[in-house]
Amino acid sequence: MDCRTGFVVFLSLIGFTFAVPVKFIDCGSSSGKVDLVDIAPCPSQPCQLHRGDSYSVNVTFSSNVETDTSKAVVHGIIAGVPVPFPIPNDDGCKSGIQCPIQKQQSYSYMNSLPVKTEYPTIKLTVKWELRDKDNNDLFCIKFPVQIVS
Ligand SMILES: *[C@@H]1O[C@H](CO)[C@@H](O)[C@H](O)[C@H]1NC(C)=O
Predict the structure, then answer these.
(1) Are 61 and 138 in contact (CB under 8 A)?
(2) What are the E-state strand segments in 54-101?
(3) What is the structure's pLDDT at 18?
(4) Which domains does the chain have, with CATH numbers?
(5) How far is the CA of 97 from the centre of ligand 1 (A)?
(6) Whose CA is nearest to atom 6 of ligand 1?
(7) I want to staple 139 with a disulfide (CB 3.0 to 4.6 A). Which of 29, 63, 82, 125 is the partner?
(8) Residue 99 has what pLDDT?
(9) Before 43, cis peptide (omega within 30)?
(10) Would you state the pLDDT for residue 105?
(11) CA separation for the pair 34, 141 (Å, rounded)
(12) Atom of ligand 1 at shortest distance to CA of 38?
């Protein structure tokens, strides 16, 4: 194997081994600030989500508010139309966050994104919000995905 092939193999091993930060759009995190979004496994972007598989989502953010509750709201935006995207547990305080959430502190929100076998194989945008007790967004992120069979 020559140097260049070795380098490519090395790069793809990195891609499979470590989570790569996902490119996201902030869609109005009014009560917090997003630092990093990780989806695993996602070796190339947009993330390819296989039907029947489950993906881990890790959003690192800091809060500007104190709140004793947090609730996740997830939509799939298909041709401009937001469709509710069910997740197993929408309680942020049971998703890696120790509540009450404090001001100016950093948190990692961890959840899984199950991709049902009956979903169509399309490209869509996932919009993931975490709302504080006043229904403001601790984070609001959008990222493109491709559902594949
Ligand atoms: C989530 O991401 C943060 C930032 O990279 C990291 O410190 C944390 O360990 C991750 N959590 C898990 C459970 O992977």
Answers:
(1) yes
(2) 54-63, 71-78, 81-84
(3) 59
(4) 20-148 (2.60.40.770)
(5) 12
(6) 108
(7) 29
(8) 97
(9) no
(10) 96
(11) 8
(12) 2
Q: Which residues partner with 36 through β-bridges?
A: 60
CA of 30 to the centre of ligand 1 (A): 22
CA distance 28 to 74: 14
pTM summary value: 0.86
| Rounded-to-integer distance, Cα 22 and Cα 119, Å | 22
Given a contact cutoff of 8 angstroms between Cβ atoms, the answer to whether 108 and 139 are in contact is no
Looking at residue 143, what is its pLDDT? 97
Do 65 and 143 meet the contact criterion of CB atoms below 8 Å apart?
A: no
Counting ligand 1 atoms within 8 A of each CB, the residue from 36, 38, 95, 139 with the most, and so the one to mutate, is: 38
Bridging pattern class, strands 137-148 and 47-50: parallel
Ligand 1 centre to CA of 37 (Å) is 9
Give kind and range of the element (H or E) at residue 131. strand 123-131
> How far is residue 80 CA from its own chain's centroid?
19
| DSSP 8-state assignment for residue 3 | H
60 lines ligand 1 (CB under 6 A): yes
